[in-house]
Recover the amino acids of this structure.
């Protein structure tokens, strides 16, 4: 239990998707009101095998394959949550969440508020986003800014197996609603995950690499890419601190500001298109609350303002690459 | 409607609910005109038999989801008139502490999951309530009230299918008042008999007279039995008509006078009252006493709302921080 720095004791190395599977299994064993629904999650075990084996253990009442009808099954999750269940609803690709935006943005997000606090929506909406390997414009988006913008939603974007497990367990126990966005390129990523039961609180970020010269803020798949970039510039004598907020709502502002006050140089790395993105909002928070500490303008490296193309070379140009991050680190550190 | 099967208590209950809705709406429209109620207000006048007949058939533990025309459902599901008027006034004592208003009024502890500002938005919520009950093994039925307008929204079709695929204890009650805001159903759909859509989804579907509280009640009881036996969902289309336009500031000029007169001649309150008197279930004085009591309750509710405090700004600003 606890606020959740990285847990190391009794750790095994497992995959991100296995960590998510463990989180679901443990919470379903613990609480009979937890149930799952989504497209191809039962028999097939999910496109990325996150729900593999859960039908066998928990049966067809609690692990349900839905029709391809996002608006209704997301709304059904909301209704079940209001009436005492803890549904974990899976949307196969975050792109398809656009089919269910009324239920997410007008119903789930606002129910507690509109009922004067009488109602609760303890629902987790699990989905995955980001560019993959040529999945094109309708299966590659990073839509977190949409959810970030709508008051009433919590927003989680884990970057490691350990975080994925601890955060998903917390999300299921939260009174929600929680949008939980995984990254399709992270499912096979490996990391140490303790055998102990643990939670990571929503709203608690994590410093993934300690450094003194530049604060680099990144989430989801931009974290491993930024860590690689940080290692690349270490040889040049630039010591980067990588801060992963892990949850964008609530945002661990204090962790970010603490790092900024130390390094006085800030880079925000975001896979999503730059326009109207979360990175811009984080930059605005920093300039408002820590302007006097800044030694250089805040830099943002973000996705291009474009739909994602199918062609792999074109695709790779649309989101920050390791070399883009390296160059931005040099710029913000005044080494160009 | 047929006589002997109905107890005095049941029929007086129907009448009381319908008269309460009628008086509540009429009184609150007056308060709206005085500027004491603001925002949108979609009156349930003319459709009272549907909420009254359905909710009389429900029991504790059953759920309803309502529409943006939701005052009638809230009253019929046992809503406290004081908290209702207070909510329409936007006061701290209202059902939603002044956060929701008419379009979001909800009484969750009574199983009323709330009105909805989005036409059709409540349909999937009802599917979820029915799904949760099924997973828990609870003997509970959910009634989704929706309109002919909502029936042309995508979630109607999706939800009907989902409920059918999963055999959910759900009753989809289409209150076909024949207008989606101002667009007549004949323009919005080639087939104006909406109950016919159920067959394609394998759902038991009925067409009833929505102005006949007895028929609404009887049909709901049968649907509940079907649902509790695990053979749900059931689709019911209740034909009815609004007495006014879409909301209080819509004069409804597009509603042909002839058709309005037809439905007003079949006013659900008049029909029920006539039945009470004709079948000897109540005397004229009994009905008058009941009406006087309801009117007194509504005046008390209005006074309660007037005297209620505005929501606390400090509490609101603290709440904002949690988002």
């Amino acid at each position: 239990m606890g606020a959740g720095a990285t847990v190391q004791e009794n750790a095994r190395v497992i995959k991100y998707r296995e960590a998510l599977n463990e989180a679901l299994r443990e919470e379903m064993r613990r609480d009979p009101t937890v149930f799952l629904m989504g497209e191809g999650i039962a028999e097939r075990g999910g496109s990325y095998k996150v729900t593999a084996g859960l039908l066998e253990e928990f049966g067809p009442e609690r692990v349900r394959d839905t029709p391809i009808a996002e608006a209704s099954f997301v709304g059904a999750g909301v209704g079940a949550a209001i009436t005492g269940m803890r549904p974990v609803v899976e949307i196969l690709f975050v792109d398809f969440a656009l089919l269910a935006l009324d239920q997410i943005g007008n119903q789930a997000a606002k129910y507690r508020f509109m009922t004067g606090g009488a109602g609760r929506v303890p629902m987790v909406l699990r989905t995955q986003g980001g560019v993959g390997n040529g999945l094109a414009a309708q299966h590659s988006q990073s839509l977190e800014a949409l959810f970030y913008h709508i008051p009433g939603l919590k927003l989680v974007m884990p970057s490691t197996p350990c975080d994925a497990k601890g955060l998903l367990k917390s999300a299921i126990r939260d009174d929600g609603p929680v949008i939980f966005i995984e990254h399709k390129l992270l499912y096979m990523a490996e990391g140490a995950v303790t055998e102990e039961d643990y939670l990571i609180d929503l709203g608690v970020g994590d410093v993934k690499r300690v450094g003194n010269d530049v604060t680099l803020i990144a989430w989801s798949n931009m974290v491993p890419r930024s860590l690689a970039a940080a290692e690349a510039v270490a040889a040049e004598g630039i010591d980067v601190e990588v801060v992963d907020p892990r949850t964008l709502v609530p945002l661990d502002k204090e962790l970010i500001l603490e790092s900024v006050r130390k390094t006085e140089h800030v880079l925000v790395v975001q896979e999503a298109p730059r326009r109207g993105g979360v990175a811009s909002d984080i930059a605005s928070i920093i300039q408002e609350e820590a302007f006097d500490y800044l030694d250089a303008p805040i830099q943002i490296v973000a996705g291009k303002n474009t739909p994602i193309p199918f062609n792999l070379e074109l695709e790779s140009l649309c989101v920050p690459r390791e070399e883009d991050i390296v160059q931005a680190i040099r710029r913000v550190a005044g080494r160009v | 409607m047929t006589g002997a099967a109905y107890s005095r208590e049941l029929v007086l209950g129907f009448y009381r609910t319908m008269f309460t809705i009628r008086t509540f709406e009429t009184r609150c429209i007056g308060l709206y005109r005085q500027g004491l109620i603001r925002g949108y207000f979609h009156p349930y006048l003319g459709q009272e038999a549907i909420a009254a007949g359905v909710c009389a058939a429900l029991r504790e533990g059953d759920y309803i989801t309502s529409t943006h025309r939701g005052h009638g459902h809230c009253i019929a599901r046992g809503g406290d008139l004081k908290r209702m008027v207070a909510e329409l006034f936007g006061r701290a004592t209202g059902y939603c502490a002044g956060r929701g208003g008419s379009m979001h009024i909800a009484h969750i502890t009574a199983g009323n999951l709330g009105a909805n500002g989005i036409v059709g938005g409540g349909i999937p919520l009802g599917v979820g309530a029915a799904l949760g009950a099924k997973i828990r093994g609870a003997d509970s039925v959910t009634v989704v009230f929706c309109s002919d307008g909502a029936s042309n929204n995508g979630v109607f079709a999706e939800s009907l299918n989902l409920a059918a695929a999963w055999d959910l204890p759900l009753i989809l009650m289409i209150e076909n008042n024949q207008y989606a805001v101002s667009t007549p159903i004949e323009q919005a759909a080639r087939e104006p008999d909406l109950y016919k859509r159920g067959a394609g989804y394998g759902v038991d579907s009925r067409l009833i007279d929505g102005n006949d509280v007895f028929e609404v009640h009887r049909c709901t009881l049968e649907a509940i039995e079907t649902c509790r036996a695990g053979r749900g969902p059931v689709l019911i289309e209740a034909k009815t008509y609004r007495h006014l336009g879409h909301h209080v500031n819509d004069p409804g000029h597009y509603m042909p006078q002839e058709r309005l007169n037809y439905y007003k001649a079949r006013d659900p309150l008049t029909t029920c009252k006539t039945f009470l008197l004709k079948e000897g279930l109540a005397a004229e004085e009994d009905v008058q006493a009941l009406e006087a009591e309801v009117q007194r309750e509504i005046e008390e509710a209005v006074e309660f709302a007037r005297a209620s405090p505005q929501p606390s700004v400090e509490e609101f600003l603290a709440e904002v921080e949690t988002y």
Notes: The domain at 8-321 of chain B is CATH 3.40.50.970 (Rossmann fold). The radius of gyration of chain B is 19 Å. Chain B has a mean pLDDT of 96.
